[in-house]
Amino acid sequence: MGITQILFWILAITAIFSALMVVISKNPVYSVLWLIVTFFTISGHYILLNAQFLAVVNIIVYAGAIMVLFLFVIMLMNLNKETEPQKSKWLKLAGAVAGGCLLLVLVAGLRHTEKQMTEMVTGDIGLIQNLGKVLFKDYVVPFEISSILFLSAMVGAVVLGKKEPRIPVETEMRKVEETQQAINI
Amino acid sequence: MFSLEGITKSLQDWLYLNFNPTWALVIECLIVIVLAIALFAFLGLVLVLMERKVAAHMQIRLGPNRVGPKGMFQTAADTLKLIMKEGLTPDGADKFLFNLAPFVVMIVAMLILAPIAFAKGFQIWDINIGVLYVSAISSLSVIGILMAGWASNNKYSLLGAMRSGAQIVSYELSAGISILCIVVLSGSLSINEIIASQQNGWWLFKGHIPVIIAFVIFMIAVTAETNRAPFDLAEAESELTAGFHTEYSGMKFALFFLAEYINIFIVCAIGATLFLGGWMPFHIGNWQDFNHIMDYIPSSIWFFGKTFFLIFLIMWFRWTFPRLRVDQLLNLEWKYLLPISLFNLLLVTVIAIFGWHF
């Protein structure tokens, strides 16, 4: 077993364990932190496939931006073990069965793939130069359209976050009180 | 001539001669770890002393002058005191995250060291997207800060962590865009190639006014990202006691303190690499004689000289400007710095396409 294989096994086991912990953890903050660990192990897999650009982008976008916002919101709302509503046992069972079905379908779908499909260390499609060429030559239109999608999402967020038109002082005061109770700090 | 490249090369040759490749790699990793920790300890001691001396100079006083000649060993004594102190964990705190947070901040600071070129050919990992790697990893330090603030179970800590989060997430944008300006000009993300592109002059001088604007925006943004005054709202002592590390004491507090200084060093090293040519000596166009004289100064001295100059600049900011309010802080970023840097990036792209730079 070379270093690559040892690293692969460590990363794979950590990935599965942390992904499970995301679901199992009772505290939402712990779930988010485990999710960050999961993204890290996935980035590690990208590096093993020599796709350094994808690995770094994965960290920037998910671990660096989206997960920080998740953490931000969860911490600000002060969700913890006590405030988290406990789901009934049957709901948990149903979730496990649904997840298991998905796993079954994935395993069935991937069972007949060729064994030597992955290129460890030697592949170069994930390098920034090749990826940039593919994105800006073969897939220019979908790429640009997806950027417009992001722009519209941003505009939507700004519109939603904009101040509402004037409301009577009394309701505003009540709102402030409610938010303070909700934040509870 | 003294060069770090020769030392590392001969060491590597010797290792591969005497061990099989796997063990040689392991031993090299161990050497790198020891060197990184030594650098951290050294930087911690030097930068804290430098900060106090610079502050004293700005305020016309002497600064630390009791321990050792001219107070040289003051920070060593302080570190000893912090090691001896008890590391308290508050009763209501989330024990695991509370104790993990300082290490997360420290590990993130260590990871950013990997692609930095300290001297010619003296680099831990020559990754082909070095600049992107640095901005990716530096965005993670906020996770450690948020963990510390939330796990302390203290409203000041939580508020400090929230402010720090908002601040780091927003200032990352303009820091990233000013880094992109240099990437566009040099046409590469690799730190080595960016340095090589400054062979005949640093980008700060070659790139006209847009690069100077990018440099100014970069310095402002990294000062905010490292939570330094005038952007130190995350630990504004008059409002929040000490912000996210209010509840920390002893060595755990020292780790946060150290990580702050390491981060300053790293962002200044990146700034020096991108705008001031990294280890590249000061060259003027094709003046062969002048360039040869400059080449005689070792590249490591150039690198550390430039980095410490930028560190001095950031310390100067701290003791000159008053602290911003939180709304002023966010207005500055979203209403001024971000539009300016986006427009500036456009200008730089035009310059790069038409080849107007020197």
TrEMBL record, chain A:
<feature type="transmembrane region" description="Helical">
    <location>
        <begin position="31"/>
        <end position="49"/>
    </location>
</feature>
<dbReference type="Pfam" id="PF00499">
    <property type="entry name" value="Oxidored_q3"/>
</dbReference>
<feature type="transmembrane region" description="Helical">
    <location>
        <begin position="139"/>
        <end position="160"/>
    </location>
</feature>
<feature type="transmembrane region" description="Helical">
    <location>
        <begin position="90"/>
        <end position="110"/>
    </location>
</feature>
<dbReference type="InterPro" id="IPR001457">
    <property type="entry name" value="NADH_UbQ/plastoQ_OxRdtase_su6"/>
</dbReference>
<dbReference type="GO" id="GO:0048038">
    <property type="term" value="F:quinone binding"/>
</dbReference>
<feature type="transmembrane region" description="Helical">
    <location>
        <begin position="55"/>
        <end position="78"/>
    </location>
</feature>
<keyword id="KW-0812">Transmembrane</keyword>
<keyword id="KW-0520">NAD</keyword>
<dbReference type="InterPro" id="IPR042106">
    <property type="entry name" value="Nuo/plastoQ_OxRdtase_6_NuoJ"/>
</dbReference>
<protein>
    <recommendedName>
        <fullName>NADH-quinone oxidoreductase subunit J</fullName>
        <ecNumber>7.1.1.-</ecNumber>
    </recommendedName>
</protein>
<comment type="similarity">
    <text>Belongs to the complex I subunit 6 family.</text>
</comment>
<comment type="function">
    <text>NDH-1 shuttles electrons from NADH, via FMN and iron-sulfur (Fe-S) centers, to quinones in the respiratory chain. Couples the redox reaction to proton translocation (for every two electrons transferred, four hydrogen ions are translocated across the cytoplasmic membrane), and thus conserves the redox energy in a proton gradient.</text>
</comment>
<keyword id="KW-1003">Cell membrane</keyword>
<keyword id="KW-0472">Membrane</keyword>
<keyword id="KW-1133">Transmembrane helix</keyword>
<feature type="transmembrane region" description="Helical">
    <location>
        <begin position="6"/>
        <end position="24"/>
    </location>
</feature>
<dbReference type="GO" id="GO:0005886">
    <property type="term" value="C:plasma membrane"/>
</dbReference>
<keyword id="KW-0874">Quinone</keyword>
<dbReference type="GO" id="GO:0008137">
    <property type="term" value="F:NADH dehydrogenase (ubiquinone) activity"/>
</dbReference>
From TrEMBL, chain B:
<comment type="similarity">
    <text>Belongs to the complex I subunit 1 family.</text>
</comment>
<feature type="transmembrane region" description="Helical">
    <location>
        <begin position="171"/>
        <end position="191"/>
    </location>
</feature>
<keyword id="KW-0472">Membrane</keyword>
<dbReference type="InterPro" id="IPR018086">
    <property type="entry name" value="NADH_UbQ_OxRdtase_su1_CS"/>
</dbReference>
<keyword id="KW-1278">Translocase</keyword>
<dbReference type="GO" id="GO:0005886">
    <property type="term" value="C:plasma membrane"/>
</dbReference>
<protein>
    <recommendedName>
        <fullName>NADH-quinone oxidoreductase subunit H</fullName>
        <ecNumber>7.1.1.-</ecNumber>
    </recommendedName>
</protein>
<feature type="transmembrane region" description="Helical">
    <location>
        <begin position="253"/>
        <end position="276"/>
    </location>
</feature>
<dbReference type="InterPro" id="IPR001694">
    <property type="entry name" value="NADH_UbQ_OxRdtase_su1/FPO"/>
</dbReference>
<dbReference type="GO" id="GO:0003954">
    <property type="term" value="F:NADH dehydrogenase activity"/>
</dbReference>
<dbReference type="GO" id="GO:0016655">
    <property type="term" value="F:oxidoreductase activity, acting on NAD(P)H, quinone or similar compound as acceptor"/>
</dbReference>
<keyword id="KW-0830">Ubiquinone</keyword>
<keyword id="KW-1133">Transmembrane helix</keyword>
<feature type="transmembrane region" description="Helical">
    <location>
        <begin position="296"/>
        <end position="316"/>
    </location>
</feature>
<dbReference type="Pfam" id="PF00146">
    <property type="entry name" value="NADHdh"/>
</dbReference>
<feature type="transmembrane region" description="Helical">
    <location>
        <begin position="23"/>
        <end position="49"/>
    </location>
</feature>
<feature type="transmembrane region" description="Helical">
    <location>
        <begin position="130"/>
        <end position="150"/>
    </location>
</feature>
<feature type="transmembrane region" description="Helical">
    <location>
        <begin position="96"/>
        <end position="118"/>
    </location>
</feature>
<comment type="subunit">
    <text>NDH-1 is composed of 14 different subunits. Subunits NuoA, H, J, K, L, M, N constitute the membrane sector of the complex.</text>
</comment>
<dbReference type="GO" id="GO:0048038">
    <property type="term" value="F:quinone binding"/>
</dbReference>
<keyword id="KW-0812">Transmembrane</keyword>
<comment type="function">
    <text>NDH-1 shuttles electrons from NADH, via FMN and iron-sulfur (Fe-S) centers, to quinones in the respiratory chain. The immediate electron acceptor for the enzyme in this species is believed to be ubiquinone. Couples the redox reaction to proton translocation (for every two electrons transferred, four hydrogen ions are translocated across the cytoplasmic membrane), and thus conserves the redox energy in a proton gradient. This subunit may bind ubiquinone.</text>
</comment>
